[in-house]
Amino acid sequence: MTTVNRRTFLKGGLIGGAAASLGLARKGSAATFEGYPDGMGVLVDLTRCVGCRSCEAACNKEQGLPPPDKPFDDYSVFDELHHGQKRRPDEAHYTVVNRYDIPGLDHPLFRKLQCNHCNEPACLTSCFVNAYTKTPEGAVIYNPDVCVGCRTCMIACPFYVPAFKYSSSLHPRIMKCIFCYDTRLKFGRPPACVEACPQEALTFGKRTELLRIARQRIRENPGKYVNHIYGEHEAGGTAWMYLSSVPFEQVGLDPHVPKEPILNYVKDFLGMVPMVLAIWPALFAGFHLLATRKEGGHGHHEEGKEE
Amino acid sequence: MKRFVKEKPDLPIVSHVDSTGRPWTLKEKILLGLSPGEYFAQFFRNPVNWFLIAVFAVGIPLLAQRYLFGLGTVTHASNDYPWGLFLGFGLFGMVPLSASGFMLGTTVELFGRHDFHPIERLALLNGLLGYFFAVVYLLVDLGMPWRIYYPMIVSLGPAAVLFLVAWHVATYLSVQIAEVSPAFFEWIGWLKGKRFVRSIILGLTIAGIILSTLHQGALGALFTYAPAKIHPLWNSSFLWILFFCSSIPAGLSMVIVASTFAKNFMRWRCDKEFLDNVDMLTIGLAKGASYALFTYLFLKFISVAHDNEWAYLLTDWGQYYLLEIVIGVIVPLIFFSLAVKNQSAGLARVGGFITVFGILFNRLNTALVAYNWQLYQEIPHWKEVVITITVYCIYFITYRFILYRWPILYTWKGEK
After folding, report:
1. For a designed S-S bond to A239, which of A41, A203, B283, B381 qualifies (C-beta 3.0 to 4.6 A apart)?
2. Which of A14, A118, A150 to mutate to test binding with chain B, by most B CBs within 10 Å of its CB?
């Protein structure tokens, strides 16, 4: 796998902190990664979803998650609010469906949320132990064996997806959707939630193909969709994308998520690091020589008090 | 302790031998030259210690609970706020306040301002302990603290900002231990070690500047991972410069605060050189801090202008932002200016205390208040607050333990 090669390469090049920061520089100047050409994805069509929660049930079973507090056919969960917020993915739910009552619309809309599997994931780029991998198949997977539990990925994810297993003291870890990578995606099969959907609200396919399908649906159904595919450019492009009949902020998808990889916001800093490493030693050694020359080297006699 | 110093002419210990020429044993050095009975008598006479005992009585069991039953039992276990007080205060607050080590190291060793020598060691120690306890807070907060060395050898993610923080804080901690070690070597009487450290002090100082510039900035850069989550006024591409720049007055003010406590509550331990110079040096620090604060204010102005965020200033968030700047920057700036103008160490001390508060206010605002500004604000769990205070009290007694003993506030009289 390419990631292993890269990691091995970096390990070889890492001797001490200085070398580590050169690694930063390389990343800082790298061009934007536009995703693996054959990466798979899922198109979520909100106009088709009826909020049956079959996908949640399928996910729970496939991933061996703990049994839910309320059964999956209990729709009162749609009324749950925590701090005024609707449900979000957490350590017991890799995916959640929420209901949104839209003013002027005679029926509510339902929106599924899970990891969107970004092309250039913020969780991956912010992780200091390389616990995340973007596979060529399109999944963003996680390795609990190296995770330290710093939770920077949760800060960095613009979609509020990774959750932490706070309940465990000895084996806490990040819990998030992995696109059923181990059990399905690796073998070319769609994830459990897609297979369980009775409404064909979820379409599994190559990301490039899904973009074509999405545009076609928008074009062939004038007035049915807003002219935007959420996830085409959000956070630099995601494998999971959404079509909606109402503006995306009304169905709880943040329109403020930048249209470029989160990493771009950090590059200003990363690019500066090698400059400081290279220039500071000579600069400050020079200052030292200038400041102490009159005393003839750096003796330790007391100077007169200034002012 | 004051009482014993008055009664016993040999105290406080400032040399390897007492007045009769008998060497102090290590046990006596640790017990400050008192008998165990006297030591505990002075310990329990001090009301501060009763407060500490009360805090530990509640806090230590809560710490145990955190390690035995998980983070979720002492915090809100929030997935929306993955970083709470432990990092918001312990890491993002303690680290800028510990910039004192590299600031005074630079002033004395690199720029040759040996007039600042009497407080150099206090500044270095303040830096070392601040960083050390930032790491302690990190160990409380990390999900798997026993894996803290993983980014060093097990699995490297060198493209991440936190990777840089981890490496630099670890390296800088070693540099600071080396910088403070001469005081320890004098105290135990191992002079070879001290001379070796003196010989590499310039290299250590320059390493300190590089590492500090980068990781103080990196702590700010960590928040640039959340461009859509933190209120735009608190987040900008300048954040790393703002964090670095504000760490300078923070570190200097923390030395003012520490020296104020030392001067008033540990007078018996300070030597004449320290007491004679501390007022003058406080004004010198205030001068440095005011330049840095002014630069910081100017950078804040530029960051608002650069991102064209003027309209936000008229909102409630904008008022809060301006409040932070007035309390944390403008008010101390006024105190520092008046202090320098009137040569008043008292005013400089007021400014120093306010600056320390202002920096903590800024870091907590960035990490907790302005974070998720479009969702909701979370009040930390009371157990989280108590654990934070407990760790801070451990920091306090460690700090005091060292100041009582090592030649930080006084010059070692014996061989050195």
Report:
1. A41
2. A150
DSSP code of residue A53? -
Which DSSP symbol is given to A238? B
Distances (CA, A) of B397 to A303, B51, B338, B391: 35, 12, 34, 10
Q: Does any CB of chain A come closer than 8 Å to the CB of residue B214?
A: yes
The reply to whether residue A130 touches residue B155, judged by beta carbons under 8 angstroms, is yes
Backbone angle region of A16, left / alpha / beta, with phi > 0 → left and psi within -120 to 50 → alpha: left
Q: CA of B191: how far to CAs of B108, B185, B375, in Å? A: 22, 6, 58
Residues 280-299 of B with CB under 8 A from A: 280, 284
Whether the bond between B232 and the residue before it is cis, its omega within 30 degrees of 0, is no
Q: How far apart are CA A101 and CA A191, in angstroms?
A: 28
- Distance from C-alpha of A47 to C-alpha of A97, rounded to nearest angstrom: 14
Domain B46-405 has CATH 3.90.1140.10: no
Proportion of chain B above pLDDT 70, given as a percent: 99
Per-domain residue ranges of chain B: 46-405
Task: Please say whether the beta carbons of B224 and A269 come within 8 A.
Answer: yes
* Pairwise CB contact (< 8 Å): B164 & A24: yes
What CA–CA distance (Å, rounded) separates B12 from B28? 11
Give the model confidence (pLDDT) of A116-153 as tens digits.
Answer: 999 999 999 999 999 999 999 999 999 999 999 999 99
Neighbours of B416 (CB within 10 A): 16
Of A88, A130, A284, the CB nearest to B157: A130
Structure tokens at B51: 């407060």
CB contact under 8 Å between B206 and A130, yes or no, is no
**Smallest Cα–Cα separation from B351: which of B262, B275, B257, B265?**
B257
Angstrom distance (rounded) from CA B93 to CA B85: 10
Q: Which residues of B touch A173 (CB under 8 A)?
A: 143
**Ranges of each domain in chain A:** 34-245+253-260, 262-291
* A207-256 pLDDT, tens digit each: 999 999 999 999 999 989 999 999 999 999 999 999 999 999 999 999 99
Q: Is B234 left (phi over 0), alpha (psi -120 to 50) or beta?
A: alpha
CATH number of A34-245+253-260: 3.30.70.20
Distance CA B45, CA A2 (A): 66
Q: Which residues of B touch A156 (CB under 8 A)?
A: 225-226
What pLDDT shows up at residue A19? 39
Contact residues, chain B, for A148 at CB < 8 Å: 142-144, 147-148, 150-151
Query: ipTM beyond 0.90?
Result: no
- Within 8 A by CB and 6+ apart from A92, the residues are A65, A66, A68, A175
Listed in order, strand segments (DSSP E) in chain A are: 40-45, 96-100, 109-113, 132-134, 140-142, 163-164, 174-175, 202-206, 240-243
Interface test with A, best of B146, B164, B282 (most A CBs within 10 A): B164
Using alpha carbons only, give the angle B131, B132, B135 rounded to the nearest 5 degrees.
90
Task: Render pLDDT for B101-135 as a digit per residue (tens, 0 to 9).
Answer: 889 988 888 888 888 989 999 999 999 999 999 99
Strands A109-113, A96-100: pairing is antiparallel
Residue numbers in A near B117 (CB within 8 A) = 302
Task: Give Cβ neighbours of residue B22 (< 8 Å, ≥ 6 apart).
Answer: none
The residue behind tokens 């465990």 is: A168
- The C-alpha atoms of residue B172 and residue A15 are separated, in whole angstroms, by 16
Q: Is the per-residue pLDDT at A176 higher than 70?
A: yes
CB < 8 Å to B206, chain A: 280-281, 284-285, 288
The tokens describing A100, both together, are 């949104």
